[in-house]
Amino acid sequence: EAQVTQNPRYLITVTGKKLTVTCSQNMNHEYMSWYRQDPGLGLRQIYYSMNVEVTDKGDVPEGYKVSRKEKRNFPLILESPSPNQTSLYFCASSLSKVQETQYFGPGTRLLVL
Amino acid sequence: KNQVEQSPQSLIILEGKNCTLQCNYTVSPFSNLRWYKQDTGRGPVSLTIMTFSENTKSNGRYTATLDADTKQSSLHITASQLSDSASYICVVRGPSASNFGNEKLTFGTGTRLTIIP
Description:
The structure holds two protein chains of two kinds.
Chain A: E1 4-7, E2 10-13, E3 19-25, E4 31-38, E5 42-51, E6 54-57, E7 65-66, E8 76-78, E9 87-94, E10 103-104, E11 108-112
Parallel strand pairs in A: 2-11
Antiparallel strand pairs in A: 1-3, 3-8, 4-5, 4-9, 5-6, 7-8, 9-10, 9-11
Chain B: E1 4-7, E2 10-14, E3 19-25, E4 32-38, E5 45-51, E6 56-59, E7 62-67, E8 72-77, E9 86-94, E10 104-107, E11 111-116
Parallel strand pairs in B: 2-11
Antiparallel strand pairs in B: 1-3, 3-8, 4-5, 4-9, 6-7, 7-8, 9-10, 9-11
């Protein structure tokens, strides 16, 4: 089944404790992206990747890192999480940026205490 | 600043009734407009996509319309079902301010639709 998977789905952590949210797609998509969704603000792009080893900042990249060592994986790293990063995070992928029908993962709900 | 505004914020209707959701945008120039459905606790799923040259697109009971002159789009749901209860998000693709010149997506904040039996 074609899908985007994220892990973990739920995470509670404390300020400053490094964490990684994994994202994997099995559709051989080139373009992958991370979003955060907050009430009243809609989805905002954090980082995106056009292909392996090609990443760029989205609208709200502060406090986040990403890597794209393999085509299927695009982990989101929070080196020193803070409470303002409490949010619902979505990973998405598409065949290419031009084709751009994005397929979203199920979401990761993060709480930073 | 490019914006996408959706109305109403929330809507409650009886099962079987029709409804229309609105999306106004200021993104310019504009490449395409997409409507997503997001069930509670899940990721958004694409419903329709329209380019500036298209003024209507259907997907089952969902029909999206686009007026590129007034920068307005609507999503009409016919004969609503309980499974239509979800958030509906309007997304517009337009120019990016990045050095790469790539287009970017601007998301609306969504309309929360609740269908009651």
